[in-house]
Amino acid sequence: MAEHISLAVIGGGPAGMAAAIAAYDSGVTDVTVFERDDELGGILNQCIHNGFGLHSFKEELTGPEYAGRYAGQVKKRGIRCETGSMVLSVSPDKRITVVSKEKGLRVIETDAVILAMGCRERPRGALNIPGMRPQGIYTAGTAQKLVNCEGVLPGKEVVILGSGDIGLIMARRMTLEGAHVKLVAELMPYSGGLKRNIVQCLDDYGIPLKLSHTVVDIRGKRRLEGVVIAEVDGTGTPIPGTEEYYECDTLLLSCGLIPENELSISAGITINGATNGPAVDETLATSIPGIFACGNVLHVHDLVDFVSEEAGRAGRNAAKYIADKGARVNEPHIVKLIAGNGVRYTVPGMIDTANTGEDIHLRFRARNVYKGCTIKVSAGDNTIVSKKKRITVPSEMEDIILKPETLGGIDGDITVEIEEGSV
Q1: pTM above 0.90, yes or no
Q2: 146 and 286 in contact (C-beta within 8 Å)?
Q3: Which end of the chain is less packed: N or C, by CB atoms within 10 Å?
């Protein structure tokens, strides 16, 4: 006979731990966290810089410290954690297939599943950079693990492509370890990282940031010898005559993160094309009843504190689903959320206005940099929320609170948009 557990949480990073804790505290004590690494914590274990926990714990922590706080809470509650366990598949009827060295291959029946697998970096193969494949090209996260966990410095003369937060942080980290970071090149006309990281990781160390630039050629056969950087136009096409050659032995790629959704796709869960994560409603439930998603597997966050907060809601809603056996108090009334002018995506993508009992965190990212703007949430001619902003940037996720009482009587779609020059 197949094993049975009430709730399976896939992923033991910050999202998985927070979701398991919230579900346990909501009455589901039969919960198991499955983590493929040998310890809990996920990517936080290699993030030795500080800046974590300001929202969750009201103090500044390093990544391992933040992970340790949650791991301690998991242990205190006696929540089962199976590390070194890889979930191979999730079926539409909420059966999961797990393999581990200790217990072999198992099929486990569940009442509910929370997907918290996190995300991965976009590799060189997805960037279409011409040139050879020499040694010395790494994703920023791989370099971070080499330096922080293995004590290995990948190189001495460094160029970084992409200004995502990991790339910015590694510019500082490589500098502190004695490497020379020549520049950070960014394809877009704005940085992909938080403003504080630009200041603390680049400006404070005199590292130049070249916006609207990209790598157009890689030189070297066995070992990287240098890269050619060129300016790009508004369509991202290199401008002839702007090429510059930089001699280097290391190229770090920080060109975006991709939600880790192979399990979601194989289960038949509907995927949001804008986020590459599951399409969810206000409870963070996916298109398959009883399967929830949270954290970076849902959409890429900029702060881990927001990951933990979101995962807590997923855990509570999964516990409610198990307690109510999936039943809803009222007949569902689903309203779609539409990403309007200036908005790249929204999470959630739909709301059941007939069964919403708590505040809804509407999160989204802007398509571009907008100054002196207004964020407007409306249904037809009815403005639900209007919020003025001095500046809105793609690198920082926006969070708008929708009150349940403002959603009654809405029949059409809800649109989220940014009105420029309205402040």
Answers
A1: yes
A2: no
A3: N
Task: For residue 4, give the H/E element and its range.
Answer: strand 3-10
233 Cα distance to chain centroid: 28
Which residues of the chain fall below pLDDT 50? Answer: 423
Find, among 32, 37, 13, the residue nearest to 297 by Cα.
13
Rounded Cα gap, residues 318 and 320, in angstroms: 5
Is residue 18 a contact partner of residue 315, using CB atoms and an 8 Å limit? yes
CA distance linking residue 203 with residue 402, whole number of Å: 38
Alpha-carbon distance of 415 to 258, in angstroms, equals: 26
Domains and CATH numbers, the chain: 1-120+257-327 (3.50.50.60), 123-255 (3.50.50.60), 329-423 (2.60.40)
Amino acid letter, 128: N
Nearest to 343 by CA among 360, 371, 368, 361: 368
How far apart are alpha carbons 206 and 214 in whole angstroms?
20
Q: pLDDT for 368-395, tens place per residue?
A: 999 999 999 999 889 999 999 999 999 9
